[in-house]
Amino acid sequence: MIGRLSGTLLESSPERVLLDVSGVGYEIQIPLSTFYELPEAGRSVQLFIHTHVRAEALQLYGFAHAEERRVFERLIAISGVGPRMALAFLSGIGADELVSAVHAEDRARLQRIPGVGKKTAERVLLELRDRIGFDPPESKPRAAAGKAAAANGGAREEALSALLNLGYARDTAARAITATMAETDDSATLETVLRSALRRLVGAS
Q1: Is residue 145's pLDDT more than 60?
Q2: Could you give the CA distance from residue 158 to residue 85 in angstroms, rounded to a whole number?
Q3: What CA–CA distance (Å, rounded) separates 149 from 193?
Q4: What CA–CA distances, in Å, run from 66 to 50, 122, 183?
Q5: Quick one: which of 151, 171, 146, 136 has its CA closest to 64?
């Protein structure tokens, strides 16, 4: 199994990266929490990898921090939570906020994540309550140059695509982005737009 990859970042989007490792290009799915910490294309990057083997495919999931990977693996071990939903958890509220929600037994917070209903939220709270404790990952300095796109039509479409892939309805996601962009200037990065839109959608403080 692949547990870690270090190489040159060729391409990145809010959903996946293409990483060159000794001439081999690895396509890796990522949560938004990892996307926020990526450097610009052409720079070196290290990702902690979860290798997900299915009958018809082998998929790689990458994380900026080992603890994020650990939370992801705890989540997919829960009945009814697959890799896509686990990425939605890490993209919507992040590993540290998920830990806080679990300790606070904040079911409503979890249910704001697309695809998470009452029963799934209850299972996550029950199964993670005594097993998920860890110190939240420290934020690393990140190079924003690679994602410093202005909040124009292109950035809007990329942000909308990311929210749709997380499971938000198009109208709901579009309203959150429109409200966000109305409060930002033309220098706002894609990261800024996504963070603010997600705060509106999941009710983060």
Answers
A1: no
A2: 20
A3: 10
A4: 10, 25, 34
A5: 136
Half-sphere CA count of 10, side-chain side, radius 13 A: 12
Domains annotated on the chain, with CATH: 4-63 (2.40.50.140), 67-128 (1.10.150.20), 149-202 (1.10.8)
Query: What pTM was computed for the model?
Result: 0.77
Distance CA(203)–CA(188), nearest Å, equals 21
Residue 132's pLDDT is: 63
Q: Which two tokens stand for residue 157?
A: 């479409």
CB distance 122 to 107 below 8 Å: yes
Residue 151: which pLDDT band, with cuts at 50, 70 and 90? very low
Amino acid code (one letter) for 11: E
Q: Which two tokens stand for residue 60?
A: 């790689």
Alpha-carbon distance of 191 to 10, in angstroms, equals 18
pLDDT tens column, 76-122: 999 889 999 999 999 988 888 888 888 888 898 898 888 888 999 99
